[in-house]
Amino acid sequence: MRAGIPSQKKKSFAVKAPLRMYLRKFTRETSLPVKYSDLMRFDNTASLIDVNGEDTLWETVYYSESDTRELHAALTEIYALMKTDGNIEVLEHLSVARIDWCSFGNTHPFRIRIINRYNDNYDHFYVKKADASRIYGLELEHILSPERITYLVDQETLIEEHIAGIPGDRFVAQNLTVPKFDQTRITKEFVKFNERCFVRLLGDMRSYNYVVDVTPDIEGNQYRIRAIDFDQQSYEGRKSFYLPQYFRENNPIIKMGMSLMDPDTVNQYQLEERTLIANRAKGESSRLDMLLSIMSKDKISSPEKVEKLKNELSTHHQTKAFDSCNNMGDIVQTNIDLITQKGFTQSMGT
After folding, report:
1. pLDDT digits 0-9 by tens, 162-176
2. Cα 188 to Cα 116: distance, rounded to the nearest angstrom
3. I need a surface site. Which of 48, 203, 290, 311 has the fewest CB within 10 A?
């Protein structure tokens, strides 16, 4: 079975009052010195070409002299808010090296390149249109994954940190010819990543929507796969859309895993990850319960997709637990509760 592509371009969903209350409680919402709409005032663009001469599909944008001064000052202030809780002392040696814009995708993001003038070290962050389903995705990642996520919201503007790593499509194409020990670690991590996505219903994890963080270890490397695109948080109606194993872009890792792991080993890794997710959920139970309660009263998909996903998950899990779900928030809550139960079993191939 193939996960395919989204059935249609995903709609954007407004951030409503209950979610904003949650964001304020957990210091995600703050007043920002620049909005997404301000960055749209650019005068010219130029295609951004990578070191291999390939078009990156990003465009470097240019502003008038007065707008450039104003925007650069505001963007370095935002970076300080994210990295040093607003400590303005760091602003003296930070500057904006480049602003890039991507006209593709749902959020049409701006990527801000910040450079440290003392040592020429650089970092990035993103300015996007705020979308409720994406924010739910970011929060679920923060609570249930091994990593913490930094982002800020102000009205219709969303600021996201850059998640470092080797882009998944490049990793799959160039980094799989490693010793067998490392190949085993890569496939183990993919099983765990596959499980994390399915438990919290994060969709569209084909290779260019995640990165691979590689850490040298005593023997070989450690690998961590991290989602970088949260637009498809519980939006689509097809179960397979939430299982990265079904995207053909991930086939090289799947085939490698099939040669290295038997079903019992796969089940062991799935159980390990579900146990970790259950422990994280327990440790952040108040926050997770509040988020899912708000999500269960919000609309972040269509009734048709909700009904389809309910039916497919009911068949997949052989349960009637999803029958009473009325929206995607209910489905996510039910799926998390079900899969993190002790004794739950699931095959990699289902």
Report:
1. 999 999 999 999 999
2. 37
3. 311
